């Protein structure tokens, strides 16, 4: 009878479980909030490929990665494969959104990357500037 109680204890203690709840934030600025940062807006308007390469570098990726978006439609259409989603732009957008836990979805990222490429790159640039310049708060215990 003692062994039966060992197999099926009624008051079994479970190890404490900890759950991490991700607190998702919004984008620092809206998709069409170019007036929030005129420099980024002008940079994107006058030389969007240059801005895209800058965003890629700020995010720690190869600076030339966004140039794949320029070449990919020509290459894929040569093989008869239509492509409307810029792959590098979409990948960077998803990566930034996931790294900084920004609200959104893959469907919204695809739509944003396809509908307004310039606005998307400008928003990503503003977001990285904001995230990279936000000071970190460090609490040190008193000695």
From TrEMBL:
<protein>
    <submittedName>
        <fullName>Cornifelin homolog A-like</fullName>
    </submittedName>
</protein>
<dbReference type="InterPro" id="IPR006461">
    <property type="entry name" value="PLAC_motif_containing"/>
</dbReference>
<comment type="similarity">
    <text>Belongs to the cornifelin family.</text>
</comment>
<dbReference type="Pfam" id="PF04749">
    <property type="entry name" value="PLAC8"/>
</dbReference>
């Amino acid at each position: 009878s003692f062994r039966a109680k060992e197999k099926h204890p009624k008051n079994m203690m479970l190890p404490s479980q900890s759950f991490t709840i991700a607190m998702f934030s919004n984008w620092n600025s809206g998709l069409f909030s170019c007036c929030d940062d005129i420099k980024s807006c002008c940079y994107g308007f006058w030389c969007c490929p240059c801005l895209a390469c800058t965003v890629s570098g700020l995010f720690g990726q190869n600076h030339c990665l966004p140039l794949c978006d320029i070449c990919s439609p020509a290459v894929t259409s040569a093989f008869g494969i239509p492509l409307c989603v810029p792959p590098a732009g979409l990948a960077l957008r998803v990566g930034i959104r996931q790294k900084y836990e920004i609200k959104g979805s893959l469907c919204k990222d695809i739509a944003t990357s396809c509908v307004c490429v310039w606005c998307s790159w400008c928003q990503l640039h503003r977001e990285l500037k904001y995230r990279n310049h936000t000071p970190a708060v460090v609490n040190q215990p008193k000695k």
